[in-house]
Design brief:
The complex is a heterodimer. By secondary structure, chain A is mostly helical. Helices cover about 70% and strands about 5% of the residues of chain A. Chain A has helices spanning about 1-30, 40-55, 60-85, 90-115, 140-160, 165-175, 175-180, 185-210, 215-220, 225-230, 235-255, 265-275, and strands at about 130, 135-140. Helix content of chain B is about 70%, strand content about 0%. Classes of the chains: A mainly alpha, B mainly alpha. The interface of A and B includes residues 86 and 112 of A.
């Protein structure tokens, strides 16, 4: 039972981070039809920028986190403006490859600035051990889950209530109709990228707090695909549920079966979902069949 | 001043090289390729061999992605299948490379066709993600099926012999150069002719519009699987050659990064162009080597640059992909065509 609770908590933590990364991913896909292979690198950049402000520049952590989020907004807008906008209307392989190229550039920049060796992250979230139902669980994981839930709740309120959020959903639904209602599609694209960078930065710093800052954060980017496919590529609640399910599955198979099976269970799920229900649990059934 | 190319017989219409300029260029390239190994040292021979193998793999991928329009992120996994099949046949049963290489190609073709089955229901980015899953699953099987592949340990392949001639040992690069060259020429000719045939045109029709192709009588099921199998056949050939040439097979050589760099080759070289695949393979293979040499050359001028070489290689790799996609999506093949067109009509270009 102890093992089960520990595995579940660690699965929920990873799942929460996947959900944050997946949220940004789905936003970009929904609003601009771009599939972002650089999502993991956005997590990486976010983690390192936070590391820079908090650990290297020695700022108080609320200030450091706010500055890191500001950098994320600028990065998101810059990427959209310089890299993605020239490719509007290009075939899908160009769009995929351009985000892959972007991922290489971001990874190269990060390792050129901070070096390839992983470092420990200054714990701004307490790491005490907490007893839940008799199982020892590290508190930072609980904090990560709580913060992720908070962020996801904030973003769903944003999409439901604010003008910008409603405009984004309108663009996702029908670009031409949204344009004729006076919504600037360019602004929405830039907004989608900056929100994606912001959620990735939050996910990155939560992850860095648990596993330290290092290149392996970017490796989690690929795990976003099973999460978003399971939940449905264009569904925000789907991204959250997909992220959590994938995180739990990984933790349970890793704990009970082992053999490194946890590394590919997400991809086996991904293949099954693609075979049976390619639009995922909550996605719109507009996938083109051949 | 020419106004066009006119054929007077079917024979002329069927030749691969049509104009005198094309024939002269082909002769020059052939002469260079034949003379090159006698003047190059081992470093350049190694690079040339790497380019040859990469060109075979890139042509294979281009058949699938560039010509048939099926995006594949599983290249690394398929190469692993070819490399491990050839390597295991050679180490376990001591088979000669004339047996291991064809068997490896056929095995990879079969595996490729199996992983191509999702393409019958999925297209575009869904297919790309499905092949990404294929890549991860194949690599996991390779690293965890220890009884057969030896897991994460390197598989040491005995030096190959061909017609009683030892290919390994001193001067291995020189001897392998000719073997790889022969395979590369075979692959190039096969691909160039494939797209002049019924099958090749069916594949291009699928890329351009799958429903229109089906209406015109192209059996999508058959031809898509055929594209996956044919493509994987050559990808497996590249993998098998890697295994025998390197005499060592490790899983690290076949990760998602490999898939990405092969995709970069065909994007930079030119999607849907056989010659473009070769240009792209040369470009992506030479890029890190050139940057490495540049970094060493400027070691004294810019302090600390030597330690940054891996990062510079990665950054330039990504930057070049972005630049080509934005500035010249049709790749080096198109750039070269523009140059030729300019000089064909020079100085009266319109």
């Amino acid at each position: 039972m102890d093992l089960f609770i520990q595995l579940t908590v660690s699965g929920l933590t990873n799942g929460a981070v996947y959900a944050l990364a997946a949220l940004g991913f789905v936003l970009i896909y929904k609003s601009s039809d771009v599939i972002n292979f650089a999502q993991g690198e956005l997590l990486l950049v976010g983690a390192y920028v936070t590391f820079f402000f908090v650990a290297q520049a020695g700022l108080a952590w609320p200030v450091g986190v706010l500055l890191a989020l500001a950098v994320a907004v600028v990065l998101g807008v810059a990427v959209e403006r310089t890299v993605l906008r020239p490719l509007i209307g290009e075939p899908i392989i160009s769009v995929i490859m351009v985000t892959i190229g972007l991922a290489s550039v971001l990874r190269a920049l990060v390792t050129a600035i901070w070096g390839p060796v992983p470092r420990s992250f200054p714990a701004f979230i307490p790491r005490d051990e907490v007893l839940i139902l008799g199982a020892v669980v590290s508190a930072d994981r609980l904090w990560a889950i709580a913060l992720s839930i908070l962020m996801l709740a904030l973003f769903s309120l944003f999409f439901r209530l604010s003008n910008e959020g409603i405009a984004m959903r309108a663009v996702a639904d029908d670009q031409q109709a949204a344009m004729s209602m006076g919504i600037s599609i360019r602004r929405i694209f830039a907004l989608a990228w900056s929100i994606a960078a912001v959620t990735a930065t939050i996910g990155g710093m939560l992850l860095a707090n648990i596993i330290g800052v290092g290149g392996n954060i970017a490796g989690l980017g690929l795990r976003v695909f099973p999460a978003v496919i399971l939940g449905g590529l264009d569904s925000i609640p789907g991204a959250v549920i997909g992220g959590v399910v994938i995180g739990l599955l990984e933790a349970w198979t890793g704990g009970y079966i082992g053999q490194g099976l946890n590394q590919i269970v997400p991809f086996i799920v991904l293949t099954l979902v693609l075979m049976v229900r390619p639009y995922g649990l909550f996605g719109q059934e507009i996938i083109e069949r051949v | 001043m020419e106004s066009g190319i006119f054929f007077e017989s079917y024979r002329q219409d069927l030749t691969l090289r049509r104009t005198p300029a094309q024939k002269i260029r082909l002769a020059l390239v052939l002469a260079f390729v034949l003379v090159f190994p006698f003047f190059a040292d081992n470093y350049y021979l190694t690079l040339a061999n790497q380019i040859g193998i990469a060109a075979i793999g890139a042509i294979g991928l281009n058949i699938l992605t560039g010509f048939t329009g099926q995006i594949s992120l599983g290249q690394g996994g398929f190469m692993a299948v070819g490399a491990y099949t050839a390597g295991l046949l050679a180490t376990r049963w001591g088979l000669p490379i004339l047996v291991t290489i064809p068997l490896a190609c056929l095995t990879t073709a079969a595996v490729g066709a199996v992983f191509g089955i999702p393409s019958l229901r999925l297209k575009g980015l869904y297919l790309a993600i499905a092949t990404l899953a294929a890549q991860e699953i194949i690599l996991w099987v390779v690293t965890h099926w220890e009884a057969v592949t030896g897991g994460t340990d390197a598989l040491v392949v005995p030096p190959a012999t061909l017609f009683g001639l030892k290919l390994g040992g001193r001067g291995a690069d020189f001897r392998w150069y000719w073997v790889i060259l022969a395979f590369a020429i075979f692959t190039t000719l096969f691909a160039a002719n494939l797209f002049r045939s019924r099958v090749g045109r069916a594949l291009v029709a699928i890329r351009d519009h799958d429903i229109a192709a089906e209406v015109m009588g192209v059996n999508l099921f058959r031809y898509k699987l055929l594209a996956f199998a044919t493509s994987s056949f050559f990808v497996g050939l590249a993998g098998a050659l890697t295994a025998h040439y390197r005499t060592i097979v490790t899983w690290e050589r076949f990760t998602i990064e490999t898939s990405i760099s092969y995709l970069a080759m065909i994007i930079i070289g030119g999607l849907g162009s056989v010659s473009g695949s070769i240009y792209g393979a040369a470009f992506i293979t030479l890029l890190p080597a050139v940057l490495n040499n540049l970094g060493r050359a400027f070691r004294d001028v810019i302090p600390g640059i030597a330690g940054l070489i891996p990062q510079i290689q990665l950054g330039v790799f990504g930057g070049v992909i972005i630049l080509f996609l934005i500035k010249e999506p049709e790749g080096i093949a198109k750039l070269w065509k523009d140059v030729k067109d300019y000089f064909r009509l020079w100085p009266f270009s319109y």
